[in-house]
Amino acid sequence: MSVRTARAAVWAALPAEAALLGCVVAGVRIPGAVLVAAEALVAAVLALEAVVLWRLYAARRRAGADRRDAARDALRTLVPVAVRRLLAHEVRTLHSLGLWVLRRRHRIPEGALAVAYTGPQTAIMYALLFVSVVETVALAVVIPWPAVHAVLLVVDVYGVVLVLGLHAACVVRPHVVGADGSLRLRYGALFDLRVPAAAIAAARVDRRYPDGRLVRLGADGVLDLAVGSQTTVTVELTEPVECVRPLGARGFARTLRFHADDPREVVAALTRVRTDASP
C-alpha cells in the first residue's frame, strides 16, 4: 500500500464528502443508504491513512530514528509539502494576530532595525476587511435557512479573522536589518528569507513595478518581493542564497528586490554597517 494510493484516496473522498455535506445543509433529502455508504467511505479512507502512516513510522523506527523523528518523517512523507505549509501559514497568521493585539513584534533582535513594508497595502487590506464584514452581515440577513446561515456565518467570520490576521502578520513581522549587517526579508507569515551579512555586496534605493506574483523568482536569479505591486530597494549578493516560496518551491537568488516604506533608511543601515566593517 503506497503513499500515492493513500493520497489519491483522500483527494477522491474529500470532495465527495464536501458535496454531501453541502446537500445536507441545503436541506436536500438523501437516502439513508447513501449517507451510510459515504460515512463508511470516509472511515475507510481514514483507516487507510492510519495504516500507511503507521508503516512509515515503523520503517523509520527500524532504521534507528527515535519516536519524535520517526513521527515527523512519517507525516512529512504522507502529507504533501504544500498542505503542510498552508497549515503552518495559517497557524502563524493567527499567532501574529495575537501579537498585534498585544502590540508586540516577532523576533526583532536588540540593536536591529525593523523595516515596515505595509504602507502600499494597508488601505486595500482594510477595504477588503470592510467588504468581508458587509458580506457577512448581508448574508446573515438574506439567507432564511438556519442551518445554511450557521455554516456561512462561521465561514465568513473565520474569513474576516484571516484577512485581519494577514495584515497583522505583515505588521508584527517586518523586515529586519541586523546589527551585524544581516538581512531578513519577510512577508507576513508567508515568506521568510535570511541573508547573512557576508553575502550582501551592495544595496541601493531602486523603485520598480514588477509584474506577477507576490514572490517572484526569475530565471536570472532576481527575487521580487513586491508589496502593492512595487519594490523600492535592490540588494546585490556576493553569492546565491536559497529561498523557499510560500507553497514550498525552492530556488536560488543573486539579486533581491523588496519594498520598504522608508527605503533610504534600509540602504543607509546596510551601507553604514559595511562602511564601519571595512578597514
Automatic annotation (TrEMBL):
Keywords: Membrane, Transmembrane, Transmembrane helix. This is Integral membrane protein. It comes from Streptomyces demainii. The lineage of its organism: Bacteria, Bacillati, Actinomycetota, Actinomycetes, Kitasatosporales. The chain crosses the membrane at residues 36-58, 123-145, 151-172.
